[in-house]
Write a structure and sequence with these properties.
Elements (H helix, E strand, L loop, with lengths): L14 H10 L8 H5 L13 H15 L12 H8 L4 H13 L3 H4 L1 H7 L5 H10 L20 H16 L4 H7 L9 H12 L5 H11 L1
Helix pairs in contact: 5-9, 5-12, 9-11
Length: 217
Amino acid sequence: MSSEFFLTESGEKSELRKYYEFVWHPADQMHPTWWEKLGLKQWKSCFRTSPVLSERIETLIVKRMGIVKEPLPLTLSDNDKFLLSIKERLPSLMVILGIFCMNCPEYLSLKEYRTALADLLTEEQIQQAWALWPQRPTAEQKESLDKQSVDKLIINAQVIALLMLNKEMKDDKIWRALAMTLPISVNGDDEASIAEYQSSISVLNLKRWLLRLERML
């Protein structure tokens, strides 16, 4: 396929080219926790030492993630465009979505947690998320009694949101690539408790909430 196919009239990379590059070359933006998750931790230090080795490592990453099992599209769907458009904001959106999933109001109402969230969210975003709390997707479920430590709130919220969305969008190529920009695991006992908790709750259509948060925050 001609390289001109992937350029706009102004000569800039088209959305389709960005999509292809992101799906086929995820390693540069991959969160460090994924190297171990994919059983490739020993190759992390070798990445970028040579073009040939880097290409082989990326091919292995894509294969193990199951991102490309069939030909990629020649046009982008509205879903593809939306997910690509939120790539830079995804870490902050996932924190809020994860807090909604953890279903504990203190994470948005208590000062110590709000201070921790300020590392990633603005005060206005925290306040908007708190205003949405009564409508959260877990509103009909029992509130969580397990409190996360302040220093682990952000990463634990991102991990639980990722686990929940992975269930819902497991067949979405661009989502699988985007997921790799976020933490997939945490340290110590938190990982077991998060896995147990996320399997105990049922949240439908979190993707719709991702769209809603993107529009409001």
